[in-house]
Amino acid sequence: MSEIYLYDRQFNKNTDYNVWMGFPGCTGFSLSSLGFMWLFKSLDEEDGINVERVCTDTKITQINAKDVNAICFSFSFDMDFISIFSILDKYNIPFKSKDREDNFPLIFAGGPVVTANPEPYKEFFDFLIIGDGDICNLEIIKLCRKYKLAGKSKRELLNELSSLDGVYVPNITQTVKKSHYDLSKCVYTPILSDESFFPNTFIIEVSRGCFNCCGFCIASYLNLPVRFVDYETIIEKLELGLKHTNKIALLGALISAHPRFSDICEYVYKRIQSGEKIEMSVSSLRADAITPDVIRTLAAAGQKHTTIAIEAASERLRKVVNKNLTEEQIFNAVKIAKEGGLKGIKIYSMIGLPTESQEDIDEFIRLAKDLKAINKGFDITFSFSTFVPKPHTPFQWCAKESIKSLEIKQNYLKKELSKLGMKPKFSSAKWDYYQALLSRGDSTLADYLIEVYKNGSKLGAFKSAAKKLSIDTDKFVEGVYDINQKLPWDFIVLNPGKEFLKNEYERLINN
Ligand code: SF4
Q: Whole-angstrom Cα distance, residue 228 to residue 240?
């Protein structure tokens, strides 16, 4: 595996504190996880700290397990959590924090899943990071090291940590305020690798959060206020990346909202025009941000397709989810993509949204027919996920539709869209069910998760573990939560708070 470090590594630093950064997935995925790699860089640059990445496929570690002082896990997807057990298991580390004496490493976790609702996982960690870890993770590790060098106990350290913003110490913390990073320093791929899921790709975060606040969108609600990296910094970092690779990717919940997005595209386009071979990809664009200039850059940078997220085909349902996008804007985006030289467009949507009716589903067929009719020869693909209620969003109280009902809708769409010559893609309604369970679950799921792991972590294991331990999973997934009930994640203080979410829920649902 070849790795190119884009920062100066210190090889002769003094180290007296050993950290494993645990990733619940294979090495290839870890290398493409910007948050994980950025944290590795910040610890690697710190004198006194010896840090190593440990993934599910790591065979030999440089730091011996018995010498590790802290293990820091980061996970972005609910279903990734189970892989953390496999890493702990491999090194004979007890899963529950109460079973780990002071001679075991401190074990903590962060990432968007933990920030949204740490309750299903709290028994496994000594503490959890709530919010942005960019700065706070390093500060926390420094504090852990200081306490270790001073010979203080784990209990003393946890008491101190519980007083910090962004740190949740189970059984000590009462309420916790999210840690917030202003994005004054730009986050980008610190190590390029041909083993990465996106080989040798320089990923740069241009914005964090999205002010659109769609009713289901955790990426928006967890990251308010929205932050943008300034144009000059983005260009400076792109230049650093382009010295080492010709593949770049712009990252952000809604990158097209960057006030200088078209200038960034223009910059890349000019470099391509002057003879450089640059491949650029962007995450999904808002349909109303697709302009001829943007598409011209994407086409010149080798993209064959672009993706727009419409969430629903009917205007009524788009209003319910707060996706204020007109049909005219959707048609216009497809037209520009086609005229700009792309081969096709992927249209991302959801089914099972609150208030959805059969008419809303039929609108997909009508929209597909209309789009096909005036864009002959252009590859239009629909892809559907199922709605999962997420904490801290206006739809956190809504039920998830049953697997059976969602699969009926999926089969119907598949049949009808295939008549138009389309091959729609669908997420698994069954896996989405368990994603919702972890999203809205509480600490009573701890033993259930261990049981799932012991039984192989496949779909059947999720089902049989629930039966064995008499866990009513439907209660968490398909239950409508009362708007006045206390929710497991209410102790996390976010802005805007619960009152805003209640008002927004009432406003949206009545569309
Ligand atoms: S536009 Fe996209 S990123 Fe923004 S809130 Fe809606 S779904 Fe989330």
A: 19
219 Cα nearest atom in ligand 1:
8
User: 87 in ligand 1 pocket by Cβ < 6 Å?
Assistant: no
Cα separation, 176 vs 157, in Å, equals 17
Helix, strand, or coil (residue 317): helix
Amino acid (one-letter) located at 192: L
What domains can be seen in the chain, in order of their start residue? 3-177 (3.40.50.280), 200-302 (3.30.750.210), 304-511 (3.30.750.200)
Q: What is the pLDDT of residue 135?
A: 80
**Coil, strand, or helix at residue 200?**
coil
Rounded CA gap, 129 and 222, in Å?
Answer: 13
30 neighbors 72 (Cβ within 8 angstroms) = no
Q: How far is the CA of 397 from the centre of ligand 1 (A)?
A: 19
With a 6 Å cutoff on the Cβ, whether 210 touches ligand 1 is: yes
Residues in the chain where the model's pLDDT stays below 50 = none
Say what the pLDDT of residue 334 is.
96
DSSP state of 86: H
Is the shortest distance between the CB of 253 and ligand 1 below 6 Å? yes
Over residues 464-485, the pLDDT tens digits come to: 999 999 999 999 999 999 999 9
- Helix 136-149 / helix 34-44 crossing angle, nearest 10 deg: 40
Ligand 1 contacts CB of residue 50 (under 6 A): no
> For ligand 1, is residue 191 a contact (CB within 6 Å)?
no
Q: Give Cβ neighbours of residue 264 (< 8 Å, ≥ 6 apart).
A: 206, 231, 234, 235, 238, 250, 258
Contact present, 480 and 389 (Cβ < 8 Å): no
**Per-residue pLDDT at 133:** 87
**Does 309 sit in the ligand 1 pocket, CB within 6 Å?**
yes
Query: Can you give the pLDDT at residue 173?
Result: 93
d(CA 63, CA 44): 14
* pLDDT tens column, 112-133: 999 999 999 999 999 999 999 8
CA of 43 to the centre of ligand 1 (A): 32
Ligand 1 center to residue 266 CA distance, Å? 24
In what helix (H) or strand (E) does residue 72 lie, and over which residues does it extend?
strand 70-74
Residue 504 to residue 511: CA distance in whole angstroms = 11
Instruction: Decide: residue 37, CB within 10 A, 0-12 exposed, 13-18 middle, 19+ buried.
Output: buried
Residue 257: predicted pLDDT: 87
Answer for the pair 219, 210: CB distance below 8 angstroms, yes or no.
yes
- DSSP alpha helix (H) spans, 254-350: 261-273, 292-300, 315-320, 327-339
Alpha helices (H) along 309-424: 315-320, 327-339, 358-374, 403-419
